[in-house]
Amino acid sequence: MILSGSLILVGLIVNAVQRGLFHPTGAADHHDEIFTKYAASQAWIATHLAEFLLVLVALAGLLVLCTVLREHTPTLALLAASAIIATAAIWAALQAVDGVTLKQAVDAWAAAPEVDRATRFADAEVVRWAEWGLQSYFRVLLGVALLLAGAAILLSRLMSRWLGVLLLLGGLLSLLIGFSVGYAGLESPFQDVATIAFQLVILVFAVGLLAAGVRAQKANRR
């Protein structure tokens, strides 16, 4: 549990810091404005590579948790681990599109002569819409993984039930965000609130899991 909680915390916190420092911000669905910022960013590819690796670190923490739960709830733990692996795969595709393909598309638009700018802009929008689709399915798959892991925690009774409840809540929020992205794009008032709530839920879960692991380790030494 210590390793699992530590990996999740490191992935979440370091990624939040590096995104805050290097990732351009703005209205994600106002393409003229945001594409200009993306084209001007010198750190775009690097910050997305960092994000890719750090989220994988957090997902690895969930996989470690599944190995802990497998002895007590083998079916649910296996299903959760499978969903986490699928989530990691679609995350890789999402970051390839967002971190590399979109950057090339907006750079080509920014550098194009006036006669070609409309075509280049349309190309960049197609890439952006592909990102929407991948983001939507990433969130849905992550939600399924968290729901399965949360149910495994509740049934295993290996740790406090409130940790399982937190994962169930996080899974539900991730599912709802995924559906919202699919219908509304990358920004909406609901996503603003739900994303913050999701991040807080997973942060509290990771801290609680780490604390539970430390307590269990101390108890085993007595």
From TrEMBL:
Pfam families: DUF4386
Origin superkingdom: Bacteria
Residues spanning the membrane: 43-69, 76-94, 136-155, 162-184, 196-214
Family annotation (InterPro entries): DUF4386
Coiled-coil segments on the chain, per record: none
UniProt entry tagged with the keyword Transmembrane helix: yes
Keywords in alphabetical order: Membrane, Transmembrane, Transmembrane helix
Name of this protein: DUF4386 family protein
Source organism of the structure: Arthrobacter crystallopoietes BAB-32
